[in-house]
Amino acid sequence: MDFWPEFLASSWGREFVAGGVGGMAGVVSGYPLDTLRILQQNSHSASAFSILRNVVSAEGPVALYRGMTAPLAAVTFQNAIVFQVYSILSRTCDPCVSAKDPPSYKGVYLGGIGTGAIQSLILSPVELVKIRLQLQTDAKSKPHQLQSPKGPIDVAKSIMRAEGLRGIYRGLSITVLRDAPSFGFYFWTYEYMREKLHPGCRRTGEESLQTMLVAGGLAGVASWICCYPLDVVKTRLQAQVLSQYPPRYSGIVDCFQKSVREDGYGVLWRGLGTAVSRAFLVNGAVFAAYEIALRCLY
Length: 298
Hints:
Strand content: under 5%
Structural class: mainly alpha
Oligomer: single chain
Shape: globular
Mean pLDDT: 85
Helix content: over 70%
Largest sheet: none
């Protein structure tokens, strides 16, 4: 009975809970655009509007939220871990800074890289399941295919049965390559922009809600732009199923080469507009919810 009061009394506990609140806000606010991004990346059509129109007319707006259960649960936990790990690593990576001062930009960037690599272990299986569920909108238009699993647990079980543990972690390498540098840019951009928009707020913690939303949104945009081609490759690799034999792509380099050869270099940026729009919305919500929750807990 005494666990939660004691847990929330610690700085680690507050970071964990506030990060979880931020994660929930981010998933709910941006999931439809994320589904649209996945459909764009895995298709040969670059038009977000035509894909959106086809999905909504065929299955209704609810189809844009397909597969949200898994990330809502997992991303809440993942974001809690992310903010807690980041708060530790941003200090550890530059120990010369006093504990009374905010972490240096060097510590912020290096701490973000370490955080991105660690959280990939949680995120990679979740994104695999999410992508398979989101792409069921395509499968349902092909009646000759086998009936797809209904929910995230069914999808995870089917992957484990068919491909084992290695299958559930398909795409881990490309996820680490994507997330390690992007999280460095993510946290660095947020800290830099909030200080520029509200000078002195890194010390006082007195920035406005508008500052949180804008700085968080710009952080999300920066992190996506720097890693987007890797995300396209990751989506295509994780969209493969074992029944496709031989597999369409044998690895990261093969997927990159075949994608460029078939669709040109533009394919590496397909869906960027959707992703950037979603990133601004989601990460503004994430950081605003995180900062507000943290202040409430303190």
